[in-house]
Amino acid sequence: MSHAPVTRLNKDQPLSYDEVKALAQHPEAAVRSRLAGRDDVAPEVLYFLAQDDDAQVRRAIAANTATPRQADLVLAKDREPAVRGTVAVKVAEQEATGIPETDKLREMAAEALQTLAEDQEAHIRQILAEALKDVIHAPADVIRKLAWDTEIKVSGPVLASSPVLTDADLVAIVEAQPAPGAAQAIAARPEVSEAVADAIVDGDDVDAIAALLDNPSAQIREETLDALIDRAPAVEPWHRPLVDRPRLPTRAASRVAGFVAQDLLDRLARRADLDAETLDAVKAEVSKRISEGPRGGNGDTDSPSLIKARRLHADGKLDEEVVSKALRAEDRAFVIAALAVLSDVPPSVVQKALMTHSAKAVVALAWKSGLSMRTAEALQIRLARLGPGAIIRAGTDGTYPLRADELDWQFEFIRDMAV
């Protein structure tokens, strides 16, 4: 077979249809690859090259914006990840332009994207998610598929940015947590509604709530903010975001001033947007701290809950019934303070143990606090918010199912980890 001269592939020299057909069958893959990159080749020839044996040729077709949608569908299922990744970026970029297409072409583009969203390789799904995360015209089904992905590197980009996701979508994902870090990604979105913020707070994910507080555009109801401040003394990661929170209500600012570290208190006092009344209250707390001198011990501030727990303990009244009652009332701050006092560790140790989402850590804390295994189960459910399958249950006789040496080792590990 004779072949058209390779020099005819120069882009400023049009090729005849016969020359194109001949070059498409050239024995050298490099030649076919150059042809595959041209935008003046007939669609049927590009479709033919989409099934070429050489991956470089198919990748050139995948990148070519002139490639027909039918070929994109073929390439979305290509055996080579590099080819699938290339077609993912191209089709996503074409979606971003919003250029009108026929209904049939739009359907084929959506089908190609859906295929890529279901790709067995997380890397391909990640490429697609990154390419579609800001695309307002992206197919909703594809975006939802990516948002529910169990790999946060895939779901994260669309959860954090996609304008296609509705509040209902976001709330459902926060509640289900299909991937670790999903709520945290949502909390950092450019806009977070009150409904989504409430769902994040109800989820009790410390890092997600910290990201929510750190997001100046997040709409947090005053009642929700008050509830967070109730729990905040024992949750150090929330302190700086609370101090920097825009439009901080007067009452909230005054309460935050009562438990944050000195450097954050000084930072709060320097805020230019506080009204005179709030600023006076904050400055009064600064003066009080200075007169009292530095707080000693472990670095945990003496929150009202911690003061209460210490007082009850000194009076011999900090018992299992008190802890259980606070747990039923969802007084999280007091339960954390009580565990800290009973186990003789700072509240930050208890909080960091909870952040591990480890059933053994919670059980060890309960054991060290002198509480029953029945209460340890309740702590896992109500305080640590562990799922049914993750909970350590009491033995048949209602006792701790772990040996004392195991519990002691686990407790020491928790304490050392928090240092």
Keywords, separated by commas or semicolons:
mainly alpha, 26 helices, 419 residues, 0% strand
Compose a concise summary of this entry:
The protein is 62% helix and 0% strand. The chain has 26 helices and no strands.
Explain this structure.
With 419 residues, this protein is mainly alpha-helical. It has a domain at 304-417. Helices cover 62% and strands 0% of the residues. The protein has 26 helices and no strands. It has helices spanning 17-23, 29-36, 43-49, 55-63, 69-75, 81-97, 103-117, 122-132, 140-147, 152-161, 167-176, 182-187, 194-203, 206-214, 222-231, 239-244, 250-257, 262-269, 276-292, 304-314, 320-328, 332-343, 347-355, 359-368, 373-383, 404-417. Helix 6 (81-97) crosses helix 7, helix 7 (103-117) packs parallel to helix 9 (140-147) and helix 21 runs parallel beside helix 25 (373-383). It is elongated and about 100 Å long. It starts with 16 loop residues before the first helix and ends with a helix.
